[in-house]
Amino acid sequence: MRYSIALPNDRVDRADDFLTAAAVADIAKSVESAGFDACFVTDHPFADDRWLQAGGHHALEPLVQLSFAAAATTELLLHTNIYVLPYRNPFLAAKSVLSLDVLAGGRVILGVGAGYLKSEFAALGVDFDERNELLDESIEAMKLAWTREGVAFEGRHFRARGNTMLPHPATRPHPPIWVGGNSRAAIRRAVRSAQGWSPFPTRPGRAPRTAVVSTLDDLSERIALAHKEIDAIGRREPLDICLGLLTPAPGGPDYDPGRCRSYLRALADLGVTWIGVRPEGADRDSYLANACRFADDVISALR
């Protein structure tokens, strides 16, 4: 099992603690030293007020924040969990991702998804009903831009008739792509087009446009679907599985290191290779204290 920890890019309430260059650098260096393998950020460029008031969150631009984390570290992987590709022209996104990967020395993990917040699509001028098709063509277009020259590719809203993007990413052939989502379509997309799959823990009634994964049995059923798809296409490349978020959170009232270790062993037995971790913390000091506690009590104990 490997571990990706959240950079709290949503904490606009404590911007001095979490959203300055010094704060991002401090958190990134601290979690790298503690033993985490990667840090991750979320993506919400322009959320609507009703969603925010109902518990939604803001976020810094993912690749910008990760660039500051990259500059402060040497081995920590830089993980988008997730980057909503349909919001963006795929070639502009490809250039941004490869730029981070080149400057960071090949440390990007590109978690992507179709997105689910209809009002945000409207604000950004993107057709919500096209999101799955846009995601599929974006993945294909980005891989071509990263690995070939003289690219010819036509999408729904763009056309390349012989275009080249250099330099190529530091990671060859390109940064690993992990597809987020619990649906059959997301699983199929991950198996057929990506290097990993990122299911999200959800609760009945609170699964935004994706299948519910609230128990180990739910997750096991989804993983079985992935294996069925793997067998159907004869895939030989390993498929990373990153459970999008560990619950309960380290430092939270229900957090218990022993139960957490048992849970992670069960996840590993199912084939999960990565876990996302978001510690509790009212401020940076308590956040990092809970992160380090998790590293000592869980990561070190399981390695």
Blueprint of the fold:
Layout: E1 2-6, H1 15-18, H2 21-34, E2 38-41, H3 49-53, H4 62-72, E3 77-84, H5 90-103, E4 108-113, H6 118-124, H7 131-147, E5 151-154, E6 159-163, E7 177-180, H8 184-193, E8 196-198, H9 216-233, E9 240-243, H10 257-270, E10 274-277, H11 284-302
Parallel strand pairs: 1-2, 1-10, 2-3, 3-4, 4-7, 7-8, 8-9, 9-10
Antiparallel strand pairs: 5-6
Structure notes:
- The chain has a single domain, classed as TIM Barrel, CATH 3.20.20.
- It is globular and about 55 Å long.
- The chain is built from eleven helices and ten strands.
- The strands form two sheets. The protein has an eight-stranded parallel β-barrel with strand order 1-2-3-4-7-8-9-10, surrounded by four helices. Strands 5-6 form a two-stranded antiparallel ribbon.
- α2 crosses α4 (62-72) and α5 (90-103) crosses α7.
- α9 (216-233) links the parallel β8 and β9 (240-243).
- The model has no long low-confidence stretch (mean pLDDT 95).
- The protein has 303 residues and is α/β, with parallel strands linked by helices.
- 44% of the residues lie in helices and 16% in strands.
Short description:
The protein is an alpha/beta fold. The protein has eleven helices and ten strands.
Annotated CATH homologous superfamily:
Luciferase-like domain
Secondary structure tally: strands = 10
Strand content: 15-25%
CATH level-two architecture:
Alpha-Beta Barrel
Which CATH C-level class is it? Alpha Beta
Arrangement of strands in the largest sheet:
1-2-3-4-7-8-9-10
Q: Report the total helices.
A: 11
- pLDDT below 50 for ≥5 consecutive residues: which ranges? none
Structural class: alpha/beta
**What would the average pLDDT be, to the nearest integer?**
95
Helix share, percent: 40-55%
Compressed to H and E, one letter per element, the order equals EHHEHHEHEHHEEEHEHEHEH
Shape: globular
Largest beta-sheet details: 8 strands, parallel, barrel
How far apart the termini lie comes to 8 Å
Number of domains: 1
CATH topology: TIM Barrel
Rg, rounded, reads 19 Å
